[in-house]
Design brief:
By secondary structure, the protein is mainly α. The strands form two sheets. It has a two-stranded antiparallel ribbon with strand order 1-2. Helices cover 69% and strands 4% of the residues. The protein is built from twelve helices and four strands. Helix 8 runs antiparallel to helix 11. It is flat, with a radius of gyration of 27 Å. It starts with a helix and ends in a 5-residue tail after the last strand. It folds into two domains: 73 residues, no CATH class; 196 residues, MetI-like (MetI-like fold), CATH 1.10.3720.
Length: 277
């Protein structure tokens, strides 16, 4: 009896699975179409176009295969090489930000009252308007009347840095702004990870006399996951951190070019259309 019913049951279950798979695919299809058109296709097209010499307005028949000539040209340009170096230096703000966030998260989670107040206070820069952040730091970094230089001069430093106005300190200034903005989000994630660690683990560590390194080796994976996701997001955010420098410095930071350099051909000559210090 069971053997006679089993093929029917399997047939019905397979139909149900196909319907569920089709329904799931239909629900996901808008997102897949959007990602394919807006992200995957441009990535593939950009990669293929990097090997050709082609002007978009002249049509496909004028496309010429040049191989690696475009890469040789751009890597022979000193401004582009400098932009890569400045990008690499700017990425160093990510581990600094993560360390500061973890340090503050441990202090707030274990040694501070009014935890909610401090979490909101540190998170506010992350959700603040880019224009407001730029205006605040423009005042702080003012070469003569800014609070930062006023404090430095009170300690006897006669010629404090010009910060944004000085190309030698512009990159450092923007790194400081990026750290200040990003600490709040990472702090919230770290606090959530710390609070997910069972209290019994802390008590067992105290009873066993475990030091900080031994406790860190036995820390559950919640904190590891809480580190990986913000780190990836911080690298992406650092890669696209453009608006505050634009509002801050207008033309003062156009010489450093630590973000993208877009080569735009105008009237037969290449010019740097987007050089952000």
């Amino acid at each position: 009896m069971e053997s006679s019913k089993s093929p029917v049951i399997r047939k019905i279950s397979s139909k149900v699975q196909r319907k569920e798979s089709l329904a799931g695919f239909l629900f996901v299809s808008p997102m897949l179409i959007g990602v394919s058109i807006l992200i995957l296709f441009p990535i593939i097209a950009t990669f293929l176009l990097s090997f050709v010499d082609w002007k978009f307005v002249v049509g496909l028949e004028q496309m010429q295969w040049v191989g690696f000539d475009n890469f040789k040209l751009i890597f022979s340009d000193q401004v582009f090489v400098k932009s890569l170096i400045n990008n690499a230096l700017f990425i160093l703000s990510v581990p600094i930000c993560m360390i500061i966030s973890l340090f503050l998260a441990v202090i707030i989670d274990q040694h501070v009252y009014l935890k909610s107040f401090f979490k909101v206070a540190f998170f506010m820069p992350y959700i603040s308007s880019v224009v407001a952040v730029a205006v605040v730091w423009q005042v702080l970094f003012h070469p003569s009347a800014g609070p930062i230089n006023q404090v430095l001069m009170s300690f006897g430093i006669e010629n404090p840095p010009l910060w944004i106005a000085d190309p030698n300190f512009a990159l450092i200034s923007v790194m400081l702004i990026h750290i200040w903005i990003s600490v709040g989000f990472n702090l919230i994630v770290y606090i959530a990870g710390l609070q997910s660690i069972p209290k019994e683990l802390y008590e067992a560590a105290d009873i066993d006399g475990a030091n900080l390194s031994q406790f860190g080796q036995r820390t559950p994976s919640e904190l590891s996951y809480g580190t990986l996701a913000p780190t990836i997001q911080e690298v992406v955010n650092a890669r696209w951190f453009k608006k505050p420098p634009l509002f801050l410095c207008s033309n003062t930071m156009l010489t450093l070019s630590f973000n993208d350099i877009i080569l735009v051909e105008k009237d037969g000559n290449h010019c740097y259309e987007n050089k952000i210090g």
